[in-house]
Amino acid sequence: MTHTARRIGRTLALVLPVVLVLSGTLAVARVPWSTSNTTAQVLTASSDTASVRAKSRAPQDVLRDKLLLELQEKDPGIALTHLQREVEERPSLAKHCIAIARALGRSAVDTYGPTRAQSFSRPVCDTSFAFGVSQQTAGS
Description:
By secondary structure, the protein is mainly alpha-helical.
């Protein structure tokens, strides 16, 4: 029995350090600093893009989205009135007024139908709302 225990002990004394070294090497190989390839990282707690700021949106895009939401929640007449006020308050938006009014017209046709959408038409931005309504009606 003593001989068997010694033999098992010697085997473990030789095999155990080899297993520990190999498992340690494999564990260290899996950490992100061991490779130059950033896509092969295992730990993603500190991503490269985590602190990148979101791109700011242009004022006309923000206004268009706000007015489209208002058109859905209330009615196109209110959205057109607010568009006219915004353009009067911020003249830099005047060059985008036509595109915004057309987008409102197209959205109004989708929401209210062509006849009812046309009834909300106003002379905002050279009647671009009415043109958007007619464009959407012709396309649908």
